[in-house]
What does this fold into?
Amino acid sequence: MRLNHFVKAAVLAMGSTLAVSSVMAAEITGAGASFPYPIYSKWAEAYKTATGTSLNYQSIGSGGGIKQIKAKTVDFGASDMPLKVEDLNADNLAQFPAIMGGVVPVVNLDGVAPGQVKLTGPVLADIYLGKITKWNAAEIVALNPGVKLPADDITVVYRADGSGTSFVFTSYLSKTSPAFKSGVGAGTAVKWPVGVGGKGNEGVAANVQKIKGSIGYVEYAYAKKNKLQHTQLKNRDGGFVQPDDETFKAAAAGADWAKTPGFAVDFTDAAGKTSWPITSASFILIHKSQADAAKGKEVLKFFDWAYKNGGASATELDYVAIPASVVKLVEESWKSQIKDNAGKAVW
It folds into this structure.
């Protein structure tokens, strides 16, 4: 009898241990934009330490993330290109911003310091159109008095995959260059007239590192991590600015999140003396109807934690945290939009 009691107790104890282990081993899955991957990785590491729940996030590009969340193969998708309301409704998706940051032109030039070369939107567009092909072209030299620019050929590097970073970059070029708008246009995957492709921000950074005379575009954290030479850009107010979290924050300052459907704000070519002209939010996509309400709540708990605890990590990597006033709007949208199969709010 005592032995039987002991066995039952051991089984109960084992069951309790397994239950705790199951909670501790919880995992949420996401896929998409490479733009926010450095900060998501940082948050994931800290979140697992704090809660035991892990995040498996695949940096496959915004296009891939949109496809995977629509196919329900991941718990959330991530895209730097916000979806239009009609597209969200068609797939019963909710959308909210997770982080903000900047896309920066990066170059590989001998004898030039990071942030030394100055470019404008129209000149950058003409480089990507193949109209300006030498680093000592008159258009570039005129912007850079006193800078010794080489006579090297310019090799353009672009994203070869469906990319939200490309969407942000081409949106900016389309706003500042009528020729680029009509010839290439804005999109996650466009037909580039010249250059070589790289997959993900990682692939573009790697190509710029190895090709002398090259120019590419990456999220700023990748430029810093890979010690790439970024450029200055002339903003809408006419000033040349350097990329950092303060100039990204300045670009986002005038955003009207509350009145923008799907939180799909556009910061590119924003007004402001210190605004970085290629600034963007990165967005999360999640199904409004959650068949597994517990898993859906785990996703929201992760981003709630990130909003409240991830600001220091964001600043460290030169991202910009979502303002508290916007977080309030986001979490109100969770309550009204994201439901279980019985129609009960998940958050």
Notes: The chain has two domains: 2-101+280-340, 103-254.
